[in-house]
Amino acid sequence: MRLSSFFDQAAVATREAVAAAATSEVVPGGTAIFEQDVPVDALVSLGSRGRARLERVMAGGVIPLGYRGTGDLLGESCLGGHQVRTERAVAMEEVEVVRVPLALARELLDTDPGLRHAVVNVLLARQREVEDRIESMLFRNVEGRLAEFLIAAADRWGVPTPRGVLISAPLTHFEIAQVIGSTRETVTLTLGALRREGILDVAGRRLILCDRAALAQRQ
Q: What are the CA-CA distances from residue 103 to residues 82, 106, 187 (Å)?
């Protein structure tokens, strides 16, 4: 088990208290890490491996909110005072989940300025993600939104290879479509066109970004 980088700015005593109280578990892929609309009892982060999908369950369906990876917090809105989960987190593959008792996290926030600063940074980053996504939906077409998504995925999950940057996360066309507000069929057609132009390639279920500059021009 390792603590999230969220605690890097915290005092040594804070990190020691968190490490002593934290618990970790391995959650299988496809399993909910926590459900929406249930009481919050812990601050949750991903440990040394795995990815999670955040989504909001509505009467008309499920709205994807984004992905989290190693070291990322899940459901950090609880640090702002929310008493129930505002979204659901689902393991996309086998993940290590680290849980810190919420009461302890809130107690440490009262005494550690470094931790409070980290909370502000996380909440501002999440707000920026939402603003960027709204802007993309309003002003970019499907190809532009797809290009933006793939570049961000390469930055987050990219592994350099002789063929280009391999996006190590096995993203399905349906998952991509949910995130960018399109359909699986349209995403499949657009990816195919980018492959024919040599901008993308595939390796099994994973995408390879061969020409980042050309893709960036499609945004």
A: 13, 5, 43
pLDDT tens for 157-188 read 899 999 999 998 888 898 899 889 899 999 99
Q: pTM for this one?
A: 0.80
Q: Which residue shows structure tokens 């999950």?
A: 157
Q: Residues near 114 by Cβ (< 8 Å), separated by ≥ 6?
A: 9, 10, 11, 14
- The residues, any chain, with a CB within 8 Å of residue 85's CB and separated by 6 or more, are 34, 35, 36, 37, 38, 39, 40, 75, 78
Q: How far apart are CA 108 and CA 150, in angstroms?
A: 37
**Dist CA 43 CA 81 (whole Å):** 12
Helix (H) or strand (E) holding 15: helix 12-21
